[in-house]
Structure formats: C-alpha cells, structure tokens
Design a protein that fits this description.
Shape: globular
Strand order of the largest sheet: 1-5-4-3-2
Order of helices and strands: EHEEEEHH
Strand content: 35-45%
Number of strands: 5
Largest sheet: 5 strands, antiparallel
Helix content: 25-40%
Length: 105
C-alpha cells in the first residue's frame, strides 16, 4: 500500500524563477539520499515528474509550479509510509530553502 504526501510551498518568485530554481536544484537531490540513488526527472509543461530509486525502494513524485505556489506530491511505497511525517517535514524545510527569495528589498 502506498502513502501519498502533498506539500504546498508558497513563494514570491513567479513561475519562471521558481521553475528555474527547481530545475537547477534537482541534481542535488542525490546528496540527501543515503546510499546509491537513481534520480530521473522530466518536465511536462510546468510539472516536473520525478522518479527516485534507492535502498530497494521506488518513489514517484511530481512537482507542479504555479505563480505563487509549488505543490509537491509524493507517493511513498509501504515501507517508507512509516516515515511520512518526517519526509513531509523535510520537504517543507528543504523546499522552502530552495524557493526562498534572497533578493534584498
């Protein structure tokens, strides 16, 4: 049985800048996964489809980029479902850092 996680990340970057930051940061995803991991991503309009395989588990996700929000939806396989709350917290924290607007007012 799979457990879905959905996280909304508000931002003030606009669609194009948020999309650019996500595309530029997805390559660092492997750095946050223990062991050898395979990460594949592809864009379909403003949706990034994501596949991660690590430690014998496969995770499918998609990231929808909007003008003022990014929605991350992850489908966790059974074993990882037990860590759903921790994974959701990590997505909120790391996603927020990636989308943080560091421009000075």
């Amino acid at each position: 049985m799979s457990s879905p996680i959905s996280v909304d990340l508000p931002h003030t970057l606009g669609l194009e800048e948020a999309r650019r930051r996500i595309a530029g940061g997805i390559g660092r995803l492997k750095d946050h996964i223990p062991g050898a991991a395979e990460v594949r991503s592809s864009w379909d309009g403003d949706r990034m489809n994501l596949f991660v395989q690590a430690m014998g588990q496969e995770v499918n996700a998609h990231i929808d980029v909007h003008e003022t929000m990014v929605r991350v939806e992850v489908l966790l396989p059974g074993v990882l479902g037990f860590f759903g709350k921790q994974i959701e917290g990590l997505l909120r924290k790391q996603g927020g850092v990636l989308l943080e607007d560091k421009r000075k007012p």
